[in-house]
Amino acid sequence: VCFVVAEGGGGFRNRLHAYTQHHGTKPGVSVIHAAPNLMEKAEARDVAKAILAAGGADIVVVDTFAQTTPGANENAGEHVGKALAHCREIGKALGGALVVLVHHTGKDTTKGARGWSGLRAAADAEIEVSKVAGSRKIRTTKQKDGDDTAQWGFSLEQVPIGLDEDDDIITSCVVVDAPLAQTGDAKRKLGPREELLNEAIQELAKSGAFEFSARDVVANAVDLWVS
To answer: Which residues, other chains included, contact 100 with Cβ-Cβ below 8 Å and sequence gap of 6+?
Structure first.
C-alpha cells in the first residue's frame, strides 16, 4: 500500500507508530509526503514512477482528493473528470492497482461526497465513514456488482507512542472493532422513481457527459423505464 499524504503528514507518521506498537508488526506501507497536482498528467505519471521505484503497490490511497487537485472547480465535471482519468492511469501504470480517494462530504451529509455529482458514478465503490451517537461507522454506499448495504462499527483507541521534549506523553490512535451504534440515522431507502432517476444520472455520467440538465436526466430515465 502506498499513501499519498497531501496533508497532515505529522499525524500520519504518528498513526503508523501507533499501529506498529499496538499490533507488534510494521504495516506494509510506503509514503509519498507531498501534494502532487493530479490535474496534470505529468505529475500523475511522476507519482506512478515514484511508487514503482519504491517497489510498486497494489493499493494507492490519495489523502485527500481536494488537496491534490489545486485550482480545480470541484463542481465541474470537466475538471474532476480529468483528475479521475489521471488517477486511473496511475492504477494502470502499477499493473491494475486500486486507487482510493479520500474525500469529504458537503455541509449536507445526506447528499454524499462534496462536489460534482458524477464523482460517485465514476467510482466502483464508495465507503462512507461517519461519527454517530459518540461512536463511528463504516458503511458501503456503493459497490459495483455487489452488496452495498454492509456496515460496521469501530472506535479509536488511544496509544502512547513516546515523550516530547517536556516529557509529556505523545499519543495517537488505532482503529479497533466496536459494536455498531443503533441509531435512527439510517438513510431512507429510495423509492422506485428515485431509484430510476438515480440510475439515469449514473448512466449519463458513465457515458462521459460532464454536464447535463434535469431534462436530460428525465429523458434518460424514461428510456431506461421503457427498456
So the answer is: 59, 60, 61, 62
Buried b (16+ CB within 10 A) or exposed e, 90-116: bbebbeebebbbbbeeeeeeeebbbbb
Q: In what order do the strands lie in the sheet with 125-132?
A: 125-132, 135-143, 151-163, 169-177
Tens of pLDDT, residues 133-164: 777 999 999 998 888 888 999 999 999 999 88
Q: What is the pTM of this model?
A: 0.75
Across 51-65, 69-83, 122-136, least confident range: 122-136
pLDDT band at 187 (very low <50, low <70, confident <90, very high): low
Question: 218, 225 in Cβ contact below 8 A?
Answer: no
Question: Is the distance from CB of 62 to CB of 99 less than 8 angstroms?
Answer: yes
Give the number of other CB atoms < 10 A from CB of residue 158.
11
Burial class (CB in 10 A: 0-12, 13-18, 19+), 160: exposed
Q: Dig out the grid coordinates for 17 from the structure.
A: 507508530
Match 460496521 to its residue by C-alpha cell: 152
Secondary structure (H, E, C), 163-210: ECCCCCEEEEEEEEECCCCCCCCCCCCCCHHHHHHHHHHHHHHHCCCC
Would you say 119 and 66 are in contact if contact means Cβ atoms under 8 Å apart?
no
Q: Which of 146, 107, 111, 145 is nearest to 128 (CA)?
A: 111
